[in-house]
Prior knowledge:
This protein has helices spanning about 45-60, 80-100, 110-115, 120-125, 130-135, 145-155; strands spanning about 1-10, 15-25, 30-40, 65-70, 105, 135. By secondary structure, it is α/β, with parallel strands linked by helices. The chain has a 6-stranded mixed sheet with strand order 5-4-1-2-3-6, with helices on both faces.
Amino acid sequence: MSNRLASFVVSGDAVKVVVAQVPSDPNDPISIDYDQTWNLQSGAREPALHVLHQRCASFLKEQQIKSVVLKASAAPRSAATLSLLHSAEVRGVVIAAAASVAHVHSLAKGLISRKYGDRKVDEYLEDESFWQSKTTGTALRKGSREAAMLIIAAREL
C-alpha cells in the first residue's frame, strides 16, 4: 500500500511542487509522479496570490492528495528583506490553500539535518547515488530535490 504526498518549497515568487507515491516500507524508493515549478503570475500581487491559492487547492483536489509536506520558514541570519517577506506571503498562501484540502505538515531543513540519517540536507541534495536509490518514476529535476527530500524525510520523522 502507498500514499500520495505532495511537497512544496517556496523561494521568492516560485513554488517547487513534487508529488510522489510513498510506499509503506521506508526502504522502498518513492515514485515521482509530478515535478513542476509554479511561478506567481506577473502584474498586481494580490490577484496573483489569489490565482496561486486557487491553483494549489484545485491541483490537490484533482490529484486526490490528502497529505502535504511544506518546507518551513527559517529565521533570517540578518535583517528581513522585502524578498524574504514576499516569499513568506507566498508560503502562507500555499499553506492556506493546501490546508483547505489536505493535512499539512511543515518541516524545517535544520530539523531534517539533525534527525534524518547522518548528514546534512545539502549533502544529500548533491549525492547522486542517494537519489538513484531513493526515487523512481518521472525524472526528478536537480532543483526539485529539496522538495522530494521533504517527502523522504517526512515518512521517517
